[in-house]
Amino acid sequence: MAKGYGLKASAERVRPRLGVVVVEPLAVVRAGLGKLIGDRQEMEVLAEAGSADDCLESLRRIRRSRPVVLVGLGLPGERDSLWLIGTLRESYPHATILVSGAEADAATISRAMFMGADGYLDKNVDPAEFLQAIQRAAQGEVVMAGTPVDRMAPIADGIDSRRQIAHRLTTREQEVLRAAARGLTSREIARHLGVRERTVTTHLGRIYGKLGVNSRVSAVIEAARSGLVAVDLSEGA
Prior knowledge:
Elements: H1 2-13, E1 18-23, H2 27-38, E2 43-49, H3 52-61, E3 68-72, H4 81-91, E4 96-101, H5 106-115, E5 119-122, H6 127-138, E6 143-145, H7 149-168, H8 171-181, H9 186-193, H10 197-211, H11 216-226
Parallel strand pairs: 1-2, 1-3, 3-4, 4-5, 5-6
């Protein structure tokens, strides 16, 4: 029995820690977040990045299927924080993407959620609450740490809607739908994904059935309203 207990204890010791990628333009803030996370026994910092390109390059080298990516608001240039969130959601659909900021306004947080973030963490909250929110998000919970619940509840509901639709669609179907949202034809989608055009048509048919619609436009609108894809719905929505 003692031997069996030893094996169990050994298995618990080698349990992988929660891997976090910290993306923050300010070096001093990036270092502080890295230390805060790295000091936790159940967490580890997989990489620290100061730009969107650095983040993507780091993720290509990381062999983790479900990393947590903490994206700080304020990344400069065309490849800003929102661009990175959208790119991460499309390229790493199983990653947990969190936005971090300091007293960010609701509109900014809402846009980040629309692009694919799974929650918002205010940098001014208690460190223990900050770390607990990361763990809860990694378990699939929508987190809004440091933001009034009544103000952010509609955004959280939108995230739940996006996840419900994403759960119904396979990874390939989500890729097809996102390509369709960019206005690509079936032939162009097939070329982009490296499959046959007939395969794309089959995927679209299954998407229509799962979303309860009967056209590509309706499927894109349904996915956009949930935040699964990002398009402008100001016309005809």
